[in-house]
Amino acid sequence: MTTIDSADLILINGNVITMDVKLPRANSIVIKKGEIIHVGTNEEGLKFKGEHTEVMDLEGKTTLPGFIESHIHPTIYGVYLLELDCRSQSVSSIDEILELISDSTKKVPVGEWIRGWGWDDSKLKEKRYPTRWDLDKVAPNHPVVLTRTCEHMAVLNSKALELSGISKDTKNPPGGYIERDAETGELTGLLKEAARDWIAVPKYGFQDIVHGMELAQEDFAKWGITTVHDMSTQTKDMQVYQHLQGADKLKVRVRPWIWAINQNGWEGLLDQILSMGIRSGFGNDFIKIQGVKFMLDGSVGGRTAAVAEPYVDDAELGILYCGVEDIYPSFEKAIASGLRVAVHGIGERAIEVAVQAFEKVNENMDITHMRNRIEHCALPTDDQLKRVKNLELIAASSIGFLHHIGDSYMNNLGPERMKRVYPHKSFKEHGIVAPGNSDLPVTGGNPWTGIYTAVTRKTITGQVLDTTQNITIDDALKAYTTDAAYSSFEEQTLGVIKPSAKADIIVVSDDPFKIETEKIKDIQVERTFVDGKQVYSSRNVQSDSELKESVEV
Questions:
Q1: Angle between helices 348-362 and 324-336 (to 10 degrees)
Q2: Which candidate, 62, 75, 76, places its Cα nearest to that of 13?
Q3: 298, 192 Cβ separation under 8 angstroms
Q4: What is the pLDDT of residues 17-76, one digit of tens each?
Q5: 3-state class of 494 per DSSP?
Q6: Which of 137, 128, 125 is CA-nearest to residue 96?
Q7: Do 337 and 279 touch, CB atoms closer than 8 A?
Q8: Residue 482: phi, psi to the nearest 5?
């Protein structure tokens, strides 16, 4: 074979799980110009070796398609990496959070904002959220804002409330809630949903977002994530992605969903992109527009998801942002112009609004070929599942939630409702494609925890949430590979190892089909390739070089 026909890279001696039904297992992968050109035996693969071909011995390691995260917020996660880390993996109590803030007051000039993220009251020792009085003790002269892990609420200190123009006389905004002490009527500092729009914290600058995204990419590569769906894309996000690609520093494929209307403090861009004539699919292999994103309710953890029955020990039903007649015209306008629609719907009432709005659009134009989506789709009823299938909607299921915050789901919903939360078995039975996701930074972004939980229905504490919705390891892997690729019309090129697919590949520590189920969550990614280039290795550079030089062919 001549040099011009030879491969750039040949991976040999791998335990290759292709996720391709035509050839489920293989030993070698041949790559040229970022594309897979052959999959098969070692002998077959080495026929593509030329003078400049690199050959890498995988030493029997399990190899899979790169993971596709169907719903995350990459740049938000990135800038959060610049803030105080209040996640349960870093702090265990309010006192520890206050220590972080106290340390920051010594470094941040008086009057400038201190920001933190990731707190989860269900995992703090005190089993409550920090209040403005807690924050005032350590930072009376700095405005402080701490965002909850669910991204649907935040706590402010007195200085931050003052700068945001929020007092005890301020009325709740539509779709939002300002918490007050039940006895005194004083503000506790907690703002929920649309009330967060009023927080006067300065927006991050372009270079901040670039730096944050560079940090986030390191985690994506370490977790084996090679494609991400950005579910709240703003103007600066698009600028950052294009900047990184232009500088040859974009190491993950990005699938933007543009934020549609003014919600949650973010500017709606639907009219702008419609006026430019942009349709779904616009872009290139690394940055490709998917559609527009809407939001209908909150979160189960924060008891703001619009449920059909009250939360446990509570009379509340959550917050429904708007009704069918409010949201339908925007759905129709987007879809008629060639833009797919994704809509956040967690509780039954929100899912009902989403389904009815899609049904109303479908009366005037067939949308069943578009793969429109309901994001999270946490608590669908059986009737809603049938209608979701009739419309061929994608259920972008946040199965990763159950690992990280499933205990709070059980506390807030009770055991009966848990039998239909992120119901992957029911999705499969109804023929609904349901890619998995973490909604990072809402929960941890490692896909193996989502895969593990889809199989076991266990939380991080080991609690079994139900034994109704378990799926097989094969179906769980599909949720992060082939099903996720289907959600962006890329099932022939992403999420699979076969000729003509993109060379997005991961090498992992263990075969998930052969190890004990409990160990699935502990699988480590050892190498990640994007477009045929290695972007992560758990080995050091020297040992990688030695490995390449040691291959005799």
A1: 50
A2: 62
A3: yes
A4: 999 999 999 999 999 999 999 999 999 999 999 999 999 999 999 999 999 999 999 999
A5: coil
A6: 125
A7: yes
A8: -65, -40
